[in-house]
């Protein structure tokens, strides 16, 4: 008995008959058993426009002492929070920290004072207002924009993932049919299916521009949702 490996470029596939490969006798090849299978991997990607935007801004203060740094904060967190909420956003977190600030020189590292940072994060389902939120926060005293990220709501993400999984399964069957046809076989039912989770899709704003009125304008890109499947089919 000998094993006959099957290789198809670009497709990860394995044909198994009786668990060891195709079987041949001295008088000629015997028909493969009914439990022959082919295993393939396939991927798919779906794009969706983001329906969630998260803006992170901060007010910063510096001073010779921790108290002075706090007193020198460029803006009040309550004022920044109110400004964001007035624009329809939901503030999801507010963090405050004070830490020593150092300066590097040839003589070494020397503490020059303290820096206080009050960070506020807000989320909105109206992604077109991300720039407006930034402007409102800056007007209220924020002097640092730490980032804007776009994502999908759970409902949108799940819908996109289901579409990606359906496409991945179609791709898997197509690949399996190519492999099976090379051996004059056809593809039957799926025996086992495994899926892979690629994590929560997020896209970050890479650039911000100002319009003619000096207001912040951001154009987000699409969010991609990936799906991978590993499928084993019966061969007929």
From TrEMBL:
One of its GO terms (biological process) is DNA damage response. It comes from the Archaea. Pfam families: SIMPL. InterPro entries: 26kDa_periplasmic_antigen (IPR052022), SIMPL/DUF541 (IPR007497). PANTHER family: SLR1258 PROTEIN (PTHR34387). This is DUF541 domain-containing protein. It comes from Haloarcula argentinensis. The lineage of its organism: Archaea, Methanobacteriati, Methanobacteriota, Stenosarchaea group, Halobacteria.
């Amino acid at each position: 008995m000998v094993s006959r490996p099957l290789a198809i470029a670009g497709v990860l596939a394995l044909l198994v008959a009786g668990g060891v490969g195709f079987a041949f006798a001295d008088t000629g090849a015997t028909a493969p058993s009914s439990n022959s299978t082919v295993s393939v991997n396939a991927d798919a990607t779906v794009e969706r426009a983001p329906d969630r935007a998260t803006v992170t801004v901060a007010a910063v203060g510096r001073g010779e002492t921790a108290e002075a740094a706090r007193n020198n904060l460029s803006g009040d967190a309550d004022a920044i929070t109110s400004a964001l909420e007035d624009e329809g956003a939901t503030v999801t977190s507010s963090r405050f920290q004070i830490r020593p600030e150092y300066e590097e020189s040839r003589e070494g590292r020397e503490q020059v004072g303290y820096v206080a940072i009050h960070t506020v994060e807000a989320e909105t389902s109206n992604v077109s207002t991300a720039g407006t939120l930034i402007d409102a926060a800056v007007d209220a005293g924020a002097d640092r924009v730490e980032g804007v990220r776009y994502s999908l709501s759970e409902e949108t993400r799940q819908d996109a993932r289901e579409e990606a999984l359906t496409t991945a399964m179609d791709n898997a069957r197509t690949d399996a049919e190519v492999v099976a046809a090379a051996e004059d076989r056809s593809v039957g039912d799926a025996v086992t299916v495994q899926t892979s989770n690629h994590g929560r899709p997020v896209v970050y704003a890479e650039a911000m521009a100002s319009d003619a009125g000096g207001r912040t304008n951001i154009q987000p890109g699409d969010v991609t949702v990936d799906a991978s499947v590993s499928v084993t089919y019966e061969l007929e």
